[in-house]
Design goal:
Strand order of the largest sheet: 3-7-4-6-5-8
Structural class: alpha+beta
Number of strands: 8
Radius of gyration: 19 Å
Strand content: 25-35%
CATH class of one domain: Mainly Beta
Amino acid sequence: MYKATFSFIFLFIFLLLGGCKTMNGEMNEASADPSSDASHYRVRGKTYHVMKTGKNYQAQGKASWYGAKFNKKRTSSGERYNMYKYTAAHRTLPLSTYVLVTNLVNGRQVVVKVNDRGPFVSNRLIDLSYAAAKKIGMVGMGTAKVDVKAIDTPVG
């Protein structure tokens, strides 16, 4: 009797803990509270430190985009991802920062709101929503060399 009870309890705990695993991969790996703008968070054993402000931020690097696979899933800001809005994921800019993204190949620009964390691929600077990627002409290529500059919150 004791052995059967112990086995049942062990199996129950094992199944309960197994159900806690995330199924969303990269997008939900940040260990910080997704509804807060924590000063740091960890992903795959690496700690990222969020800037106190985006003021004067400017960087060049590779942009990628994410679309239907993540549509309607929660972002790090707590909002649901909408691939048809102008949003982006950035590893260290404060959430709700607005940035002007310029495709350095064709000069096309888009203003996006940072509402998520990522990309967690070492050679990427920013992940754009499908709509933002389409606006700057990079959907077909998948990635593009971009300039990212923090701006004041747009009016309207």
